[in-house]
Amino acid sequence: MVLDSDFSKRLYQDYLMYRENNLTKRRFKHSDILPLIERLKDKDIFKVNKVGESVGGRSINLVTYGEGEIPVFLWSQMHGDESTATMAIFDIFNFLSANDDFNPCRKKFSKKLKIYFMPMVNPDGAELFQRETALNIDINRDAARTQTTEAKVLFEVFNSVKAKFGFNLHDQDRVYSAGQSHRSAAISFLAPPFNFNRDINKTRGDAMKLIVKMNEILMQFIPGHIAKYTDEFEPRAFGDNFQKLGTSTILIESGSWHEDPEKQFIRKLNFIALLAAFKSISDGSYKKNEIDSYNKIPDNQKNMMDLVIRNVKYTWGDKEYYIDLGINRTEVNINGSHKFYYESMLEEIGDLSVFHGYEDYDFEGCSIHPGKIYGREFESPEEIKKIDFISLYSQGYLFIKLFNQQTREDLYNLPINIVLNNSSPKSVVLKAGSRANFYIEKNGQIEYVVVNGFMFNLRSKTGEIKNGLSFYDI
Ligand SMILES: [Zn+2]
Fold first, then answer.
1. Residue 62, strand partner residues
2. What proportions of the chain, in percent to the nearest 5, are helix, strand and coil?
3. Cα angle for residues 149, 154, 157 (degrees, 5° grid)
């Protein structure tokens, strides 16, 4: 018998052999996965059924593998902008289709399990890369009422499959840490409760035991980076309802990892955790785990920020203060497309010792100053594109004035902030709730600038300012 830990280590090493190379970024559409689903129809080991359509007329498909007695159901991307596990599901299809040393394991899955995959429950949401459906309804608050077409499809399949185990696959915010640590919650698990009391019955208990198994497996690769999602009962959510109806349901939240913006490492972790779960279900090994070990998994805490700057000197009046600053960035979709720009937020100023930044700098001995507005006025974005930005940064200019501009469209890719048209710029201030635009000085020399939450190091000329923002008034 292959040990669970050996099995997962080999999966970890050999992952690239199974990775679906047509999916490499978080933002993809229904039209990107359709040819991959079509391809599965040629393989005898899969059954592919169209089980419904989104309100926008896009197909929702169910892929079935195995002939066993234990039904397992996985569904992903009911939130259109949470696509990490969908990528992992296509990796799993490649794994199941391959012919190599893992054959005994495939044979076992096929003999013991009947696995139903529903990738991309919300294709219209994926089209716009937004959480909700085309009707702007959150499917995961529609399990009780099932008004949306997509929720109906999901519930119908759930009722027909009668799964022993269910996997509810989502993505969570970047802010989560594993407990009170400075480590990002790369994966968070939850055995959703089935009532307000959060009681534990056999169904929920089995989900907890399987989570303990998956946690044990992932701990080999990402120790300290696994957490538990909050377990308040949500009567409108699918996981909570499916648990109540007797399917041991596991929520997997794909979180964040340093320098992995496209979540390709998190995708790999999903691949490993899910295959390890299939193995454990097929040989029953999860039953030996203790529910108590589930309770010991640290809770999700909000300790992470995108950028934390520490110990900078800030002068107010004639006094000096030492402060930390915490900044987050959000992706904002442009016109409901897959194009986006970043918007920064200065979350907090003061003592940020409880937070940790994906980028985290100690600037002791340096002073901080709000970005300045460049005096000259420009006529067009083309004119601005010719500017030597580094020269402006090194003088503290992080804003430039632009006249005669009708649209913001072509401003999203400039590495500087724009003050538009005839607005009269006031002075820029450092304030929680505002955008993050400032520079850091050492011995009278500007060494770093932060433009819209992105840092550039003027000494080493490193860093990437993805975009500034445009303002009518600042
Ligand atoms: Zn979600």
1. 49
2. 30, 30, 40
3. 120
Ligand 1 center to residue 357 CA distance, Å? 23
Task: Compute the distance between CA of residue 52 and CA of residue 61 in angstroms, rounded to an integer.
Answer: 7
Degrees (nearest 5) of the Cα angle 158, 66, 146? 10
CA–CA separation, 86 and 142 (whole Å): 21
* pLDDT at residue 1 tops 60: no
Domain 304-471 has CATH 2.60.120.260: no
- Name the residue ranges covered by the structural domains of the chain: 4-301, 304-471
Q: Distance between CA 86 and CA 157 in Å, rounded?
A: 18
Contact 404, 383 (CB under 8 A): no
pLDDT tens column, 6-15: 999 999 999 9
Q: Could you tell me the distance, in angstroms and rounded to a whole number, from the CA of residue 396 to the centre of ligand 1? A: 40
Torsion sign, CA atoms 288, 291, 293, 299: positive
CA triplet 325, 327, 328: central angle to 5 degrees? 165
Which homologous superfamily is 4-301 in? Zn peptidases (3.40.630.10)
Residues 6+ apart with CB under 8 A from 365: 313, 442
Angle between helices 84-97 and 30-40 (to 10 degrees): 20
Ligand 1 centroid, distance to 216 Cα (angstroms): 24
The predicted structure's pLDDT at residue 26: 97
Rounded to whole angstroms, the Cα distance separating 396 from 260 reads 30
Distance from the CA of 23 to the center of ligand 1, in angstroms?
20
In the structure, what pLDDT confidence band is assigned to residue 2 with cuts at 50, 70 and 90? Answer: low
Distance 280 CA to ligand 1 centre (A): 25
What is the structure's pLDDT at 51?
Answer: 98
Q: How far is the CA of 120 from the centre of ligand 1 (A)?
A: 12
Q: Is residue 146 exposed (0-12), middle (13-18) or buried (19+ Cβ within 10 Å)?
A: middle
Q: Half-sphere exposure of 365 toward its Cβ, with a 13 Å CA cutoff? A: 4
**How far does the centroid of ligand 1 lie from the alpha carbon of residue 386, in Å?**
42
Question: How remote is the CA of residue 335 from the centroid of ligand 1, in Å?
Answer: 22
